[in-house]
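Section 5.1 Outputs to date
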Amino acid sequence: MAKTARHARQHAEALAELFSDIREVTTEAMDALINHYEKKKYLRQSLQRLIERGIIDSNPTKYLLTKKGERFFETYRSRYPLPMPPKSWDGKWRIVSFDVPGEYRIERDQIRALLKEFNFYLLHKSVWISPSYLSQDFWKTLVEANLHPYCKVMLVEILEGDEDIRKRFHLS
């Protein structure tokens, strides 16, 4: 089992990206993907769980995406879309943290949807990050939907340990 929900999501993202355009992967390609990761053991465990759940089928030479797996990854990709790289990056991170009282679930869901729409990535519970400039449309939507009282927006130049996030956004 992945050590945290974040690690489990990273493993699912890696496998979803791998199976995004193809239905089968050789064992060599899967081994190369696993060896690319620092926590190889946990990625192997996640892969094994997907095999046990019937999402991926395996034989000695390849891994095959099942029909159930196609539905699983399609649902996964719509829930957790992979972030797109910005056209140019100024080296600064845009971080949005929000705290919405429990009785305002609709507002919480609206904030999450807005952050996904504007290419933010979930960094930690209620903390989202993006390398992209925040457009006027973002601010306008945040204010018009009256979501701004729940949000804190930060511009961060130094983020220790941001290597994984840079990889997600395809930044050098």
